[in-house]
Structures are given as structure tokens and as C-alpha cells.
Amino acid sequence: MSDITTTPSRSLTTYLPDVPLVIWMVFVTVAMGFVGDMSAPEVVRTFNTGFGSALGEFALILLPSFALAAALSQHRATPAKALATAMSPVAGAGMVCPDTAYATLSPIAGRQKLDVAFGSYAGFKLLFPAGPLIVATGLGVADPMLPVYGLVLLFPVWLAGSVWVRSVDTLARETAPTTPQPIDLRSLRPLAPFAVLALLLAIGGATNFAGLPVLDFVTLPKGALWVAAALAILDCPSAQRRACLDSAVRRTGSLLLVIGAATAFGAVLIRLVSVEALLPSGAGLLGVVSLFALATLFKLAQGSSMATFAAVAPVAGPIVAGSDMSSVAAVFAICLGSFIAILPNDSFYWLVRRDALAEVDSDGRAIWILTGGAIAQALTGLILLTSAVKVGVI
Fold this sequence. Notes:
Layout: H1 21-35, H2 40-51, H3 55-73, H4 84-94, H5 98-105, H6 113-126, H7 131-139, H8 146-167, H9 192-206, H10 213-218, H11 221-234, H12 238-272, H13 275-278, H14 284-302, H15 305-321, H16 327-337, H17 347-353, H18 363-391
Helix pairs in contact: 1-2, 1-12, 2-12, 3-7, 3-11, 3-12, 4-5, 4-6, 5-6, 5-17, 6-8, 7-15, 7-16, 8-18, 9-11, 12-15, 14-15, 14-16, 14-18, 15-16, 16-18
């Protein structure tokens, strides 16, 4: 299940032609160049240079991420069934899609289906190898502490979603009593790639392998991700391995097109408008809020969280690089802005609406429940992030 698939619905683009996001970005980029008095060869040259500037790095991240996600989806025996809620953030990040994580865990979640939904959503946005790694690549940020900052933000953000669920009294009733199931340690085997990923990143953070290129690569996020993906694929039934890899190629190809268009847009934008005009120097808190708002606008306009990551980071990359804003703060400002909101133009809305909220009698109520929780999570994270920037922790 792909996070970039959306259900047609009323959104900010309701009254515009029904055109994919990438077409809009290409059209606006070219039009912006001509409005800015660039010559036709200059528009083409700038578009071409911008389009390919980051695709290699994204391919190194997205291919193994989606292969890992596809491999994990083959394990119908969910790991740690008695821990569905606790596992939801890890599943959201590891499957690189909150939809798939929720669909996997919700059948065993009982009354905690909404907890699983908000946990999967938060993990996808804040944990490696999902949101922070994708956004960091688009911004050109390589900070070994990013996974740690994501974990620190995760717990209060996740808690905000759980508190919201209880405040609106939306815990789903179980249709039949459930019997507690013991945890089968063998069912934890699908988590082995994540353990290896974490171990390699920890080794890379503690040791310098500059003289050993292969070891240096596999202890960096991109290389560690390839190792984890390879382990997950090998753990799949042999008949399913090619299908997993084909799925990874399809999902990567569509996102690379969006990323290329977004990067080209950023290249043209910076040619026409100075960085200082877009993000005033020295405005750390203002910069965080501005990037948060930018990600929010993208998310509201087209619904998909993954497409938001893919489009916003390359656009914001040149702006962040040309300012004195904290690169770590920039990464999580975009991740947190993409929380808002879970609306009917987001496939995740329909998945949860038809399952955990099937008994809710109106779409308005369902939107309030899901969007309210997402906003609570986003604002909790934003308050923590701006406080960290203000005191100089980030």
C-alpha cells in the first residue's frame, strides 16, 4: 500500500484542473522562469541542472526503504502481537508508510486502533529510515544525531495523539472479547533488520572507518539501510522477493519524478529570489515556523505525506543552506509541518475512517477526530522544537 495514493476528495485543489502534483510543479517552474525574464535556454538549463542534482542520493535511500517495506509486508504473522500499539511507530517508520503499518497492526489492536493509527503516523514522520532521513537528504543534512532527536521528539508527540484519542472518547468497541495472547519470541524475527540498522548506525557514530570505504559506507545511514533491506529481502519467501523489488522500483520511480521537479523548482526560485528575502538571516525561530508552515501548505494541498517530504525538502534545501538556521531544526520543522492534517485527500484518512472510525456517523466528526489528533501531535512537536532552538540545544 503506497502512501502517495490518495482518494479523490474536496481539498485546496478542488476547483483546479485534476492534474498530478508533478505536472503542476513543472508548469509553475517553467512559468516562473519566464516571468523572471530568464531566456528559454536559461530556463531549460536551470531546470535540467536542478532536476538531477539530488536524485542519486534519493535513489540510494528510497530503493532500500521501499524494498524493506515490501519485505516486511510479507510477514502476515505480525511481530509481537500483544504489543501492537507499542510497535506502531517502529512499523510506521520501517514500512515507510503509515497506511501499511496501520493495516498490518489494526486487526490485532482491539480497542487501541486509533492509538495504533497515531503511533504509526508519528513513527513515519519522526523515525529513521522514513521522514527524517528523506527530508535530511533533500536538505543536504548529514547529522549522526538525527535519529536520536527523532526518538526524543517521538514520545511526547505520540503521547499527544494518545491523549487526544481519550479526550474525544473515540476508542473503538471490540465486536468480540479478545483473549490475551502470549508473545512468541520467534515472531520478532522480522525486526532483525531494524536491530542491524541501529547497530550499524551506532558503530558508525562511534568509529571512523574513513580508511575502509566499504565499512564506512555500511555504517552510514544509506549503507546501513541497504544492509537492512538485503536482510529483509532474504527473510522473505523466495517466490516473493522479485515482487518486493519490483514494488520498490515502482514506488521509487514515481517519487524520484516528484523530487526532480521539486528540486528544479528550488533551483529556479533561488535564481530569481535571494535567500535573504525568503528566510531572513538570524531568524532561527522564524525560520522553523516558516518551514513548518511550508510543509503544512504542501500537505493540505495534495494530501500525501511522502509526496510532501519529496517536494518540500528540495525546495527548502537551497534556502536552508543559504541561511544560518540549524539544519537539524529545519529537518524536523518540515517533518512536523507534514503532520497537518489527516483530511479526505489523504489515503490514511480513508483507511482509518473505514476501520477504527467505521461507527462514527459523519465524515465531519471523523475529520475532527483525525485532524485534531494530527494537529495536537504537530503543535506538541513544534513547541518542543522551538524551545530547543531558543535555548540552543539544536
